[in-house]
User: Fold this.
Amino acid sequence: MSPYNMTSLQPYNTFGLDVNSKQLLTFKNTDELLDHLNQLKSSGEPYLILGGGSNVLFTSDFEGTVLKNEVGGISVIEEDHESVIIEAGGGEVWHNLVLWSIQNGYGGIENMSLIPGSVGAAPMQNIGAYGTEIKDVFVSLDAFEIASGNLRSFQLEDCQFGYRESVFKRALKNQFVIIRVRLKLTKVGFHKINTSYGMIENELKEQHILNPTIKDVSDAVIRIRQSKLPDPKEIGNSGSFFKNPILPKEQIDKLKNEFPDIPVYPVDENQVKTAAGWLIDQAGWKGFRDGNFGVHKNQALVLVNYGGAKGKDIYDLSEKIIESIKEKFGIELEREVNIY
Ligand code: EPU
Assistant:
């Protein structure tokens, strides 16, 4: 394997950007990962670890090696009358895990159906949708420490989960590779379905479903997502490009005077969250298109590559959006996507 073989990363990033790395190596277990890292450390070659490639924007070629997590396997490791603890390899596709849980009658992650990306990337940014986050069902994970080559276990409290945040994005950034994740799911019959998110409720009502199963909830989420979010197989994108901003209550109270419709979601006593999609929409960006890139027509939080766009163009567009939101609302948007 020559380290100078250029590898196209187009199939490995959901933005579908046509960028290259020097090489792409995969690993199915920690021994393979260790071998790759030892080789790379001795050559001094830069590397990056990739999961499903659904949360990255490559603004240029990556002058190094991409290591792709392909650690597989989904199994029940503990079981009682009401619940199971399941373990999944970091390289598994997240949505496949959701489908598996539904087939087996285990509730807890159905609201997170169709989130693109891998199981290993899911805790990194505490993925969430429609009223549920991975932290709600999280038990523990095993992560490979790059510096020492040791496998370390992280319990719920060690991960420091927050809104689209974890210790792996902050203090321990780029230091660990998530190998296996364990979740506690509840057996159907004991599981309490969460349809508190208005859009799910509406969707179920429209379908005349009174007593939804986990499959009904999953199907509703899939339909909502498909109606609002572009399918990366058709239009390149990485889901929400920005995070929803968390603001002090006083700031939102002032904004409400001028913008009475601004969405407000409670966070804690002093803070609230608002919807970045709403802000970007109000600033007139929804459906904006410049040649082969733009802002999605149904969800302003999603930047899209219509085919052949450059990552740099999408990045520059995100800068313009950040500036415009700052000017109109005095709010500084933060990117959710990792930029390389
Ligand atoms: N809105 C607009 N215009 C838009 C988009 C949204 O006015 O173009 C308004 C909506 O009408 C609604 C509010 O903004 O009042 C919130 O919109 P939505 O419910 O679609 O959710 P979101 O806050 O934009 C978040 C997550 C999504 C997740 C949904 C559903 C973030 C950054 N995004 O989006 O996650 O699917 O809630 O729970 O938290 C992702 O992270 O990639 C992702 C897709």
